[in-house]
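Friendly challenge for the regulars: who can give me the structure tokens for this chain first? No prize, just bragging rights.
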Amino acid sequence: MFEIGGSLREARLKRGLTPADVQKAIRIRDRYLQALEEERWELLPGDAYVKGFLRTYADYLGLDGNLYVEEYNSRFARPDEPQLVPERFARGSSRFAGVGFFRPVVVVGVIVAIVAGFTAWQLSGSSHGKRGAPPTTSAPTTTASHHTAPRKKHRAKRHSAALPTRAVVVASRGNSWLWVRSNSAAGPTVYQGTLIQGRTLPVDLKGGPVWIRIGDPTSIDVRLGGKLVPGLPTQVGNVLLTRRGIRPA
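First reply, four minutes later:
Bragging rights claimed.
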């Protein structure tokens, strides 16, 4: 057992740093840094943020961030803290995580149904005019209909395959604290920490979207399929990154 806040303050002072210096380096506001050093956990947003801030702050000072998180868990953590989203939505997120994979199949099925209906309508029209027309008049219509279906199927599959499956988060203009979770705010953590300026964080979107909490969005760029993606907030906030782009979360 050791004093969490006091040891953080002592390590900072030994390095000759002020809270403003630390805030500029790791993008955690000085009032949160002061709350950590004074062990005033009630001034912080919640247990998840306390642990993330503790790990980032301790690592920056050359300490063992995991050791500080373990000490906090053993003495102060609140296991009954509510989830970030209702449990019924959290349970459902994994069930629908792969829905994007089946979209091409659904699109093809709809197209086939449309073509079948169109063909039936053509055949129905041909049967009404059958008395005064040669029996071969319906053949060109049927042939044209059969040629239309594969062309539309091919176009739908090619459009779905064009969606990128990987993104890259880039700390282009400074450091930023990030919290990345799979599928939603209740999903498992993929990454948590400070992304140093010039570094990149690859993100896999094959299993579905990812939820991201960004400490300093103005320092960050997101590239999807090699292209810069708009939609980041101007201050601390949450986004959902999908294969189609970014939207608020």
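The chain has three domains: 4-75, 99-161, 166-248. The longest strand covers residues 176-182. Your move, everyone else.
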